[in-house]
Amino acid sequence: MPITAKLALEDGSVFPGQAFGAEGEVTGEVVFNTAMTGYQEILTDPSYAGQIVTMTYPEIGNYGTNTVDVEHHRPSLSGFVIRSESRIHSNYRSEAALSDFLKQNNIIGISGIDTRALVRRIRIEGAMRGVLSTTDLDDASLVAKAKASESLVGRDLAKTVMPAQGVQWDDQLHEWITVDEAGQQPSGDQPHVVCMDFGMKWNIPRHLRSRGNRVTIVRGDVSADEILALKPDGLFISNGPGDPEPLSYAKQTISELVDKMPVFGICLGHQLLSLACGAQTYKLKFGHRGVNQPVLDLTTGKVEITTQNHGFAVDEKSLPDCLEITHRHLNDDTVAGVRHKTLPAFSVQYHPEASSGPHDSHYLFERFQSSLSGSPA
Ligand SMILES: NC(=O)CC[C@H](N)C(=O)O
Questions:
Q1: What's the pLDDT tens digit per position in 248-301?
Q2: Which of 195, 207, 267, 310 is catalytic?
Q3: Comparing C-alpha atoms, which of 189, 137, 152, 114 is closest to residue 30?
Q4: Model ipTM value
Q5: Domain of 365, in residue numbers
Q6: How many domains does the chain divide into?
Q7: Which is nearest to 220 in space by CA: 166, 276, 277, 282?
Q8: Which of 20, 54, 182, 215 could form a Cys-Cys staple with 109, CB 3.0–4.6 A?
């Protein structure tokens, strides 16, 4: 007998289905992702902490899961919602079924619900708080729990997914080694990039390393002095979950470093760089999550198809004089990238590291690389 699960939203709607991962109960902001593939990268992207993610593509799990295509040690999201799990997983790299991956990682999944109806509701009313439960609670109690649950706004979720300590990224070992073990000495003449980690996706250090940088990761809440002590040639500000506004410690650190070295920010990192320069952020109605989001690079006139996962955005009206818009989201005209007018600091709201997704935006890592060597981007 399949175990019953229910997804209840704060607007009173309840979607019954089958449990297909761990059992229990979680609350979170219910959002949707339109990617047809890449579910394992989505599950392990720490930026989804605090969220229950719905896949709009109806069949998920057909190529299974493995231990390689992960963007972090383990999933941080609250729950996972799909229409249907593929009955078989078939791929030469597959090691486990999606449902087993969820069970192993203690993530509650629900399948067999009308995801189109759910997503239409979110599109019309906006992202909502919800409860995903495999308990036998009645609908009214679940809706009451959804209504009583904490909203994402104003919460520092990044602290829940930051690394415990500073580390260096080692591609060969495909793992983190601590800064102390690795030593602080520059290896050869490789540029040294220090990453402020707010729950960084692992494809970012892979990209930075593949361009010949030494990469040191520090927690997102370290001070500017701690970062300067590492003698960086450039600063990278990572993606991460939740509302950027409460991360005042990061704004402070970035504002102290922005005139000292080249800076590149992705997603939460873009929001934090903008906040540090004096801009403001706001919550989007339902956000952008998928792998085919069109963006215009105003500096070249080229359109790129991008991977995105964000629910907040930089408010164009609040942009200070020192920042200019470099990229725009073509679906809704929101700010998708900014740069400092006089300093080598820039950021994008989307994910040039992709994983999963198209590779159109890899050029942004080249731009950062050029700024590290002092040549024009
Ligand atoms: N992927 C991210 O870094 C997300 C940024 C931020 N948490 C948002 O939702 O807007």
A1: 999 999 999 999 999 999 999 999 999 999 999 999 999 999 999 999 999 999
A2: 267
A3: 152
A4: 0.98
A5: 158-372
A6: 2
A7: 166
A8: 20
